Each structure stands twice: as C-alpha cells, then as structure tokens.
C-alpha cells in the first residue's frame, strides 16, 4: 500500500510567512545567518560524530569536509549581504529619457533544497545560507542515506532557525516525490544525473527554475612537464578524501607516456606513505557509505579489464564497507569503470601519446563537473583550458577550487546547471527585478495616436543612421542640454 504525504499545508504556512515581509528585513537575515554559524560551532563534535557513523570518516576529515567550508560560506554572506541587496543603477537609453533605471534584488519566494549524502551538512547548509541571505523561506530535504546526519539536521535546525521560515523534511523517495509535486519558486538538488532528470521533470510542471549540482567523470591531465612528487601527493590525497565519495574527486587520469611509469610508481608510493602497508588499519582512510555502493564499486573494478597496480578486489571487505585504494592501468575504454562515475577510492590511469590525445578523449565524452591539469608548461595549460569545457578547473591541484567562495561552483551540460557559493548562492535564490522610473514633466502629444507621417522618417534617422552625433547623444544622456532634449521630444 502506497503512503502519500501532504506537504501543502507546510508550504502554505511558509508562503504566509514570506508574504508577511519578515524575510525582507536585512537584519533578520543576518540574525538567521548568525544562527547557522552558531549551530556549526556549538555542535561541531556532534556533527563530526554523525559523519563518522555515516561515512567512517577520520576525525580530521569529519570536521574539515563539512564545517569550515560551511562557516566560510555563511561568513561570506554576512560580510557582503549589505552590498548585494542594494538596488543596482543602470543606464537609460535616450529614447526612454527622461527616466532612470534600476535593478532590484528580490527573493524568489519559497524554495526547496535537496541535499546529498556525501557531505550531508555542507550540501544543505551552504545553499541554505544563500536562500536566507536572499530573503527566501526554505524547506530542506537531507539525504536519507546518511541517516545519522539527517537526524541531527532535523534536530538542530528548529532549535537555531526560525521554524516559520525554515523546515526540515526527512524521508526517502515517497517524501521527496511529494515535495517535488509542489509549486516551489526554486529547487536546488545535489546528487546524480538520474535523479536530476526526475527533479527537472517535476519542476517543469510548474515552470519552476532549478539548480542541479550533479557530477560525472572528472579527468586529470598529467603532462610530461610536471612536478611528479607534488602532483602525485595531491592526486592521492584528493582522490581518497572522504574515500573518493566526492562529486569533484579525480575520477581518472590521462598521463603522458613519457612520465607514465614514474607517475604510477609515485602514486603507489604515496598511497603507502599516507595509509600504510595495510590501509584498512589506517586511521586516515574512511569507508564506503553502505553495502549497495560497496558492491557497485566492486563491480566497476571487476569490469575494468586492465592491470591492477595496487589495491583491487582481493582487499575488499564487505562487512567493513572497505575498498582499498586501487589503481588500474589502461582499463578498457568501453568498460563500465570508464563510463560511469566511480565515487570511490579507485583511480584508472590511461596512458596517452600527447595532451592533444587527452583533450580528444575528454571532448568525446560528457562535459565534467571538474577538470584538473598538472603541468609546468603554461602553453599546455592554456591549450587544455581553451579546448575543453568543465564546470570548474584547478591547475596543479585537485578539489581545492571549491574552497574559494568567490568562485561560482556548478556544472555544465550533464554535470549540472546553475551555480552557487558566495554571491552565486545569493544570485541563485534572487530574482533581479528591472524597474524604470519615468518622469512626467515631458509628455509630447506626438507620442500618441493619431500618428503623423513625418514621425516615421525622423525615428528611422534617429535610430538607424546615427542622425545625432555621439557628442550630442552623450550630452543628452547626461541631461546636460535640457533645451535640446525638449526640442527633440517635441519633434517625436
């Protein structure tokens, strides 16, 4: 028997709050942002413990992955919100004078944020900061996969934030389906492309705008001109942070043939250096979120048809949800591991004859959420940047670009649409309303019917032939030659 959920009364309550004007007050927005900051600081140990239980994260990663980046986001909004909410002056064309023009940032209304399980706090609280700074009411739907984190979010949000503005709904597919049936003013979803299509289809029924943060296979270019030691350390660390369960984790590497042997050897050395001879006993390596994902990743390894450099199936332990750091050299390009996002601690390496061949490989596939370039040659870096497309890029490191709140974060094509972080988060939940203020002191009768035949000839000269000199036009736009403006208005 199917269970239906009626969330319409909740939405009605949130719309009532929004229409009351409560969220329009900038001080109220700042107070609520401050409460998110307080929530994170006062509960950082509870948050870290929930992440440890859900994802087996090491203590440092449990803290570092969700708390500091969310605090940075919140504080960025607190620092800049006064600037962002101001009306924006815009020029007014001569044909519309006398008038002035402005753009007014206004909240979109009542919005829905659907989070992901891999960074369960950051991926709901960071966009929530954007929704609140924009002045929206919001419903948060945490991922049901990270059960401990979802329960803690549901417990903490009502204690820190105004429940007339922010609500939390926990549950699985039935709850999410019921939420998506409602007419939101914006939906933000973080997750995989399959569900992203479902979200977009549901939103289309109400013409609701969406932000989709998805994923894909983020490639790593490793050029022959490269600092091998630094590149390999950074790739190994980025690949295994949160056990590779990051939408922007390096998915596979395209390595120039001249350095491939050295790269493979150094990657193997770094894995041992970081996690020991038996990584399962390391206190610095997490676990796969559940057995379904564990078996999915195992099947990807099994599909590879390449050389196992280190790790592999023999080291996997289902009861511990442990998959060892694994490197596969030259897997079949038609294998599942080269077609599906890995989302785990497995790094395929494809040896290429040149960076041009690597570019062709990447361009033959979907545009990725992230792309990484390791090279000391600026010409090579610029070539890859100019000939490829991705949501974001980091040169000579991986995943670090996400830490800059001044950089929009989002995908392109199948890896997502829209962006957030910093000002982009504010923009995502904001409607920029265009307003023109027209003066009434000038209102020539020739504007109105019945039209005169000579008006068309003058308008054509005025708009199409540069009839008015640039100097005079500039003066008119500045309002410096009022008499001339009146004369022209009388002729129109």
Structure description:
With 492 residues, the protein is α/β, with parallel strands linked by helices. The chain has 3 domains: 8-214 and 423-432, Aldehyde Dehydrogenase, Chain A, domain 1, CATH 3.40.605; 219-409, Aldehyde Dehydrogenase, Chain A, domain 2, CATH 3.40.309; 447-491, no CATH class. It has helices at residues 8-20, 26-42, 44-55, 59-84, 122-134, 147-160, 173-180, 193-204, 228-240, 260-275, 291-303, 355-363, 378-387, 423-428, 453-464, 470-477, 482-491, and strands spanning 88-90, 99-107, 110-114, 137-141, 166-168, 186-190, 210-213, 219-222, 252-256, 307-310, 326-329, 346-352, 370-374, 392-395, 416-417, 430-438. The strands form 3 sheets. A 7-stranded mixed beta sheet has the order 10-11-12-9-8-13-14, with helices on both faces. The longest helix is centred in the first third of the chain and has 26 residues, at 59-84. It is globular.
Quick structural summary:
The chain has 492 residues and is of the alpha/beta class. The chain has helices spanning 8-20, 26-42, 44-55, 59-84, 122-134, 147-160, 173-180, 193-204, 228-240, 260-275, 291-303, 355-363, 378-387, 423-428, 453-464, 470-477, 482-491; strands spanning 88-90, 99-107, 110-114, 137-141, 166-168, 186-190, 210-213, 219-222, 252-256, 307-310, 326-329, 346-352, 370-374, 392-395, 416-417, 430-438. It folds into 3 domains: 8-214 and 423-432, Aldehyde Dehydrogenase, Chain A, domain 1 (3-Layer(aba) Sandwich), CATH 3.40.605; 219-409, 3-Layer(aba) Sandwich (Aldehyde Dehydrogenase, Chain A, domain 2), CATH 3.40.309; 447-491, no CATH class.
